[in-house]
Design a protein that fits this description.
The complex is a heterodimer of chains A (125) and B (267).
Chain A: H1 2-37, H2 50-57, H3 67-93, H4 100-123
Helix pairs in contact in A: 1-3, 3-4
Chain B: E1 13-21, E2 31-39, H1 45-56, E3 75-78, E4 81-84, E5 96-100, E6 107-109, E7 112-113, H2 116-124, H3 136-143, H4 153-157, H5 170-174, H6 176-180, H7 187-197, H8 205-212, H9 226-230, H10 237-257
Parallel strand pairs in B: 1-5
Antiparallel strand pairs in B: 1-2, 3-4, 3-5, 6-7
Helix pairs in contact in B: 2-7, 7-10, 8-10
């Protein structure tokens, strides 16, 4: 498992890096909007009602590129890889290096399953 | 005795300096020894250790040389933190100062640590300018200094920061990955390899990136950022490691779609 992870490390780190980008910028903005600005009445909840959210999620570029679905898929998938890789690194820093192969494998398996579910949900919109 | 700007003398402050002692011929494990030292107001931590060595106990062993944060030899743990002792003011600490050898390194004697592993890690990243193959202009440059690999200020700026490392090893002492994986290539070596990868004269990127994709190299870094926190020369090795990761990913992706380039000569 450790050898497989080593081979896939560039891909895993790429997903992790993109997850950091999504997690720190877009998700922070999302939490700000729905968690703070909307309860305070600064943003009108009607802006995010189902119909409008569905329109945003299924919006396409030039009628060909499913931009909304791509963005939504990225929002669902990439933070999972960020989380998995962060937890793996944290466990290694706290002395779990010997079990890194199996623990890392399990964490990424969760990320793969979660990514598959997220993509399936987005494709089904 | 030191003095103020007005020439008024300041009396030395008595501090207890606790030194880790270890004699491999006598001790099984390191032990602590306390010294009462009259510390001048303007002393660095290294001055106190030198005072102990010169005036109180000549058997204390430690490394030092330049006393101006250039040689990188006087790195020690001061109250549990890796510090360059010639650059660290003693005034920052209270009455008791605990001085230990750098963490994450085998102890040779007292405050002196083993350097061999560290040096091997440096060699591993091929820290010299590699040319893919000897070129006509390389030969010409040997005889005409005007042709010698000129660089723009911008090209120099790409790597200059990473070339300021003085090999003090503080980053290895602070790194949680080194603590858990002693074979981890480590911040300074990766920063040095990346420094050459960023050098416009160098053509060894593919070779170094292959090393960087191996076990115990850039992807083992958990980005705790401790290396950059303790670096006395503001090299920011954590940034170098992350940039090296990105370069290694790009190189890996290129390798999936492009034929591998010929490595050429071995210089």
């Amino acid at each position: 498992m450790k050898t497989l992870l080593l081979k896939l490390e560039p891909l895993i780190w790429f997903m992790f890096g993109q997850g950091i980008l999504i997690g720190t910028i877009l998700l922070t903005g999302w939490i700000l909007v729905v968690g703070v600005l909307m309860p305070l009445g600064i943003v009108d909840p009607a802006n995010l009602d189902y119909t409008r959210a569905h329109e945003l999620a299924t919006a396409s570029l030039f009628g060909v590129i499913p931009l909304g679905q791509l963005i939504l898929a990225a929002l669902l998938v990439l933070p999972l890889w960020k989380g998995a890789h962060h937890i793996r690194s944290l466990l290694v820093d706290f002395g779990g290096g010997e079990r890194d192969g199996i623990v890392g494998g399990l964490l990424y398996l969760v990320a793969i399953v979660g990514s598959g579910m997220g993509i399936a949900a987005v494709v089904g919109l | 005795m030191s003095s103020t700007n007005t020439g008024e003398a300041i009396a030395p402050t008595q501090k207890t300096i606790i030194i880790t002692r270890f004699d491999p011929d006598k001790d099984e494990v390191p032990r602590k020894q306390e010294y009462s030292v009259p510390c001048e107001d303007n002393w660095k931590v290294l001055d106190a250790v030198n005072f102990i060595k010169d005036e109180l106990d000549a058997t204390v062993s430690h490394r030092w040389s330049c006393r101006m944060a250039v040689c990188g030899s006087c790195g020690m743990m001061v109250n549990g933190e890796p510090k360059l002792t010639c650059k660290t003011s003693l005034k920052e600490y209270g009455d008791r100062v605990d001085i230990e050898p750098l963490a994450n390194f085998p102890i040779v004697r007292d405050l002196v640590v083993e350097l061999d592993g560290f040096m091997h890690k440096f060699e591993a990243v091929k820290p010299w300018i590699k040319r893919a193959k000897e070129k006509a202009e390389d030969k010409a440059a040997l005889h005409d200094t005007k042709l010698t690999f000129s660089q723009s200020a911008e090209e120099l700026g790409n790597f200059k920061q990473f070339s300021m490392c003085i090999n003090c090893m503080l980053c290895y002492s602070a790194c949680p990955v080194v603590a858990n994986e002693p074979d981890f290539l480590g911040p300074a070596a990766i920063a040095l390899g990346h420094r050459y990868n960023m050098d416009s004269r160098d053509e060894g990127n593919a070779e170094r990136n292959e090393i960087f994709r191996g076990e115990g190299t850039v992807f083992s870094c958990s980005f705790a950022n401790e290396c950059s926190e303790v670096c006395p020369k503001n090299v920011d090795p954590a940034a170098a490691v992350n940039q090296a990761k990105f370069e290694a990913v790009i190189d890996w992706a290129k390798g999936l779609v492009l034929p591998s380039p010929s490595s050429g000569g071995s210089n």
